[in-house]
Amino acid sequence: MAFSLWLLSLSWQLPQNGPLQPIVQRAGVVVASIPSCVTAEAAAQIVEPAARSMHAAETRTILTRTILKPPTPFDRCHRVSVALTLATAFPSHSHWSLHRRLERIESTTVELPSMGSVSLTFSRTSCPKSLAPPVVLLHGFDSSCLEFRRMMPELDDLGVEAYALDLLGWGFADTRHISSVSVEAKRAALHAFWKEELGGRPMLVLGVSLGAAVLIDFAAAYPAAIDKALLVDPQGFIDGTPPVPKPLARLGIGVLGSWPLRSLANQLAYFDKERLATDDAIRIGLLHCSRDQWEDDSVDWLLGGGYSVSSMVAPALAQVPTLVMWGRQDEILPPADFLPKFYEALPEASFRWVEECGHSPHLEQPAVLAEAVAAFIRGDKVKGDADVSEVVAAAARGPLAALLEQLKQRLAEAKAQQRSS
Q: Using an 8 Å Cβ cutoff, are 174 and 118 in contact?
């Protein structure tokens, strides 16, 4: 039971395996080249929510065609057949639709000392390099750079040079020629990306959920690489992975990919569940799981022990300008339980609430988060409620007071919803 709960705590953003839908309805179909590990069938399931609501009126057959991509280390000139909806995942930025983001997934081959070579994959904004620190976005557990699909266009509009990087062992990076996807390997990959792709320029690193643990671990090892740190609904005080016998590890990963677990996790991830907790969003998250090494990498990660950074938070970030942003309605890492720990460890850090938001501000409130990044880079005041005194005081009074505070907050939210309906 404990192991299943741990899997749930990590798998909130993971995709579900839904039935194929060879016939769907949509406003328009475009063809795009995507990473070769993604099948046409997987991509063809992706439809914008507005299209699904029109099934009763008309249906259209998905059109696909084969595209021969130029040879690159990433796709090795595989043929890719896929059809994607024009505005999928970008309802307010149709020009930055999912197919554009997939086309923009790039790769850079780096050598990891004593581990082998890997083609790291990432997506970037179109903004040119500037004197401002580049922004590197680190996704959460077992996700990909597409997790930032709604935030990247916002950053682009604000003129921010940003890179959404696939963490080694997740995302679309080809890991066939490296020996491990451990914490050490992830750290080495991020360091290589910083040196090779960013030229060693100090960067603002934004870590979401487990991505915050990656940030903390990296900052402890390479403090000169970090100009500023932005922790978003951060996971920094849950150390390690549960001990699992090796024969059961692969079974555990199977549980992690099961429909019931992922469906529940998807519901927990958002405040606005009706709008965002959709099968379509989850299918987008499924794309990277088509990579051949995904299951083996997941088992390797589970058996490797994961991140244990609770003792590093203060020493790693004490001298780094740090902003912590938290979805006020986060059900995955409730702020009442975890925010006070960061407040105590980082007394000089700034805190901001993200209103009407669960565990995923970059998906649920992308404009708010992007504007915060832009202001943080410039040294301007970040908008939002900075008062975290209630949850900090409740934590100081003990767990019962914290529970009562959560109940009080939920009652207030229920009353507000009743008034609005």
A: yes
Is residue 116 within 8 A of residue 76, CB to CB? The reply is no
Reply yes or no on whether 359 is catalytic: yes
Q: Where do runs of H (alpha helix) occur along 124-171?
A: 151-157
DSSP state letter for 69 = P
Among the listed residues 142, 156, 217, 330, the single catalytic one is: 330
Q: Give the integer Cα–Cα distance in Å for 239 and 383.
A: 32
What is the maximum alpha-carbon separation in the chain?
A: 63
Known catalytic residue: 114? no
- For tokens 């009743």, name the residue: 418
Which residue, 111, 104, 60, is CA-closest to 85? 60
Handedness of CA 237, 388, 317, 173 (dihedral sign): positive
| AA identity, residue 244 | V
Catalytic residue among 11, 97, 182, 209: 209
The DSSP call for residue 178 is B
User: What's the Rg (C-alpha) of the chain?
Assistant: 21
- Residue bearing tokens 């849950």: 238
CA distance 405 to 312: 29
Q: Could you read off the pLDDT tens digit of each residue along the chain, which spans 421 residues?
A: 344 434 444 433 333 334 333 322 222 222 233 566 766 676 666 653 322 222 222 222 222 222 233 333 333 322 222 223 223 333 344 344 555 555 578 889 999 988 989 989 999 999 988 899 999 999 999 899 988 988 999 999 999 999 999 999 999 998 999 989 999 999 999 999 999 999 999 999 999 999 999 999 999 999 999 999 999 999 999 999 888 888 888 887 766 666 666 677 788 899 999 899 888 777 777 778 888 888 899 999 889 999 999 999 999 999 999 999 999 999 999 999 999 999 999 999 999 999 999 999 999 999 999 999 999 999 999 999 999 999 999 888 877 766 777 788 788 888 877 877 6
CA gap 28, 62 in Å, rounded: 10
| Phi, psi values for residue 116, rounded to 5° | 115, -175
Query: Tokens 């079974």 map to which residue?
Result: 251
Q: Which two tokens stand for residue 167?
A: 């963490």
93 belongs to the catalytic site:
no
Question: Can you say whether the dihedral through the CA atoms of 331, 362, 180, 114 is positive or negative?
Answer: negative
